[in-house]
Amino acid sequence: MSDTATPENTLTRPAQTATGASPSTRDIDATMNTRLAALHTPKLRDEYGQQGSFLYIEDFLPRDYTERLIAAVHDVMPAVNRNYLPGHKAGGSVSRHTLDKLAPFIADLYRSEALIKWLETITGDKLQLSPEDDPHAYALYFYTRPGDHIGWHYDTSYYEGRRYTLLLGVIDDSSCRLDYELHTKTPGIPDQPGSVQYPPGAFVFFDGDKLRHRITPLGENEMRVSLTFEYVTNPSMRPFQRFISNMKDSIAYFGFRQVFRRKSGKTGQA
Ligand SMILES: [Fe+2]
């Protein structure tokens, strides 16, 4: 039952906004509309297409939003879940369930209609929020110990539709780089390597099934925190895909308690 799309998952938000949006949500939309209007969207849309569904913008978030995200990082520090997968990944994560309680600004920013509409313009896809029980919908990734990293991978969609990843830089006192390869799934176009060290407030956006990428290891006395938002085109998921996705999230990211907390009988409706 939890695999089916619910009204909360779909972007039927105008009614919600018209009648019941919190002031903070309206403020966020106004601020993001102003910020996004200053971007050269047609040029960025072309760039996204030419790069095989990948876009990087170094100066994206309003400065005070970046500062609010940095403050949120300090609020959630005690709740970081550390994971280690030998040869593939080491680092910490805070799932959407914890952010809902400790950093609601992040949840509001994730749901910003202005942001989502702009991403729809970039992708040409109708985007939906990730389901209530997906811990990746919005999450913070922590690189705090020497060697923290994640190896080469795709952000594979276990959903019926596409899964888009938006990364926002929050803290980067590190030498870590996001290395990536464009066009790996595009016949007739050679792979194109790239690398970026995205600073606080920067934007990285891609189709998870198309961008091969990694984060290089953290050095001594370094720290890095990144925020991820996940949007999908169809939030349905088949049971076997659900099982694989849950196991991966439990082991590699958030721990079993966070991932399976929704199975305890609560509907998760706010
Ligand atoms: Fe990734």
From TrEMBL:
Stretches with biased composition (Polar residues): 1-25
Keyword line: Iron, Metal-binding, Oxidoreductase
Membrane-spanning intervals of the chain: none
Domain of life: Bacteria
Disordered as annotated region, ranges: 1-27
Short name of one Pfam family: HalD
Positions of the Fe2OG dioxygenase domain: 135-233
InterPro entries: BesD/HalB-like, Oxoglu/Fe-dep_dioxygenase_dom
Stated name of the protein: 2OG-Fe(II) oxygenase
Protein family: Belongs to the iron/ascorbate-dependent oxidoreductase family.
Database matches in Gene3D superfamilies: q2cbj1_9rhob like domain
